[in-house]
Amino acid sequence: MRIAIACMGSRGDISPLLAVAGVFADRGDTVEIGCTVESRDFVRSHGFEPRVLTTLNLKEFLQSPLGQEKFFGTGTTTQLRAVGKLADSHADEFDEHLEALCEGADCVISTRIIEERAALVTHRRHTPLVMLEYFPGDPHSPVPNPLLGPRLQDAAAKIPAVLPLTYRVFNVGWALSIFKKTLHLAKRVGYPHRIINPRSVLAGRDILRIEAFGTALVPPRTRHDERQPRIGFIRIGGRPADRADRDAAIEAWIAQDDRPIVYVGFGSMPVVDFDGVVGGLSATLARNGMRVIAVPGWSARTGDEVVNTPDLLVVPDVDHDAVFPRCAVLVHHGGAGTTAIAAASGSPSLVCSQAFDQHFWGRRIEAARAGAVLARRRMTADTIAAEVLALVRDEAVVVGARRTGAAAANDLHGRDQFIAAFDAFMAEVAATEGEGSGR
């Protein structure tokens, strides 16, 4: 089987797709990986030769003064527009490369953000589509739409009757935002039908939408659908061999004294003056008998060297499985993957939400009594320190985090669940095609 996988987004978005790609490759399937320019090395490090779909560099945009102003200085809707506008400027390039990636594929796997595009470039062969979802996305979800602004989410959460409306209204906005580009691509690929709603290009297609975020933090949908199963979070197994020396150094730092540890990492959300924030935080926490291990992620630093003092360790990355359960508090951005692993660790989380679905995941952590949310506009060394100290002193949160950890640990086995759902879907599609050809 030839499988085309379009990896879009940050490392957290791409990792689950690479995890299933590894399974496909190991069992003999031909796997082609398409990705953004900044993800090439990450894809290559997992044994695949990447095909660059777009030269759009989201990391550079988010780190730039323009990105800091236009993206982080606004609300969720404006953030989505900013990223959409950036993507539109590279749309022709992306569509051309996506079409080439999908040519001759027996199945295309990606995420919802390019669902309509994938349907259009494969319309002639009606290639089966599998879309991986990292947060709830339809009206049958018993939680607010994660892509609403924080205030709207919080208001809707108090009125269950309006929850379906939060998805329907967003879908209208999404359709309007992609309408022109959808028409342009439809014309380019010779799509034969008139398009009123961009979602109409999905009609009649074999599509499997897999919700890969478990049930410990988000209750199941109110309507069962075999073509929209809920599975656990998908993780890449093992730890790269070239991390052994770094992991050993981290273990040595952890073992050097018994003071509680606070992890700090914001993933693909660049923090201005990361070194200053982390330095100030570690100084405050040190006065309260704690120490900090920090991972910069996409945050620019004044220097790239490792910081190793008794109170602060700054390293490029950590083994989440080894480090998270040993932390008193986990300070992170609330990405879906980080939240899943943090919840399963049994340690309280301080979710410093900054964009997209991060406020949603912070509220889910709060609902589980496993942590708290801190908005980006309030993020300083002092406010983070105050929230951390409040969490470690709140016995209800400590107990809630442990309780959540026991349940969330069962949500980390999504890779095998994905493969099972994929195989069942492809078998069903093949059987249906066989019946059709036999008539």
Shape: globular
Describe the strand arrangement of the main beta sheet, using strand numbers: 3-2-1-4-5-6-7
The name CATH uses for the topology of the largest domain is: Rossmann fold
Mean pLDDT: 91
Low-pLDDT stretches = none
CATH architectural category of the largest domain: 3-Layer(aba) Sandwich
- The count of DSSP E runs of length 2 or more, i.e. the number of strands, is 14
Coarse structural class: alpha/beta
CATH class group of the largest domain: Alpha Beta
Radius of gyration from the alpha-carbon trace, in angstroms: 22 Å
Percent helix among the residues?
40-55%
Specify the CATH homologous superfamily of the largest domain: Glycogen Phosphorylase B
Q: What is the strand content?
A: 5-15%
What's the structural domain tally? 2
Main sheet record: 7 strands, parallel
Q: How far do the termini sit from each other?
A: 25 Å
Short description:
The protein is built from 17 helices and 14 strands. It is of the alpha/beta class and 439 residues long.
Structure notes:
The chain has 17 helices and 14 strands. A hairpin with a 3-residue loop joins strand 10 and strand 11. The mean pLDDT is 91. The chain is α/β, with parallel strands linked by helices and 439 residues long. 46% of the residues lie in helices and 14% in strands. The strands form 2 sheets. Strands 3-2-1-4-5-6-7 form a 7-stranded parallel beta sheet, with helices on both faces. A 7-stranded mixed beta sheet has the order 10-11-9-8-12-13-14, sandwiched between helices. It has 2 domains: 227 residues, Rossmann fold (3-Layer(aba) Sandwich); 171 residues, Rossmann fold (3-Layer(aba) Sandwich), CATH 3.40.50. The radius of gyration is 22 Å and the shape is globular.
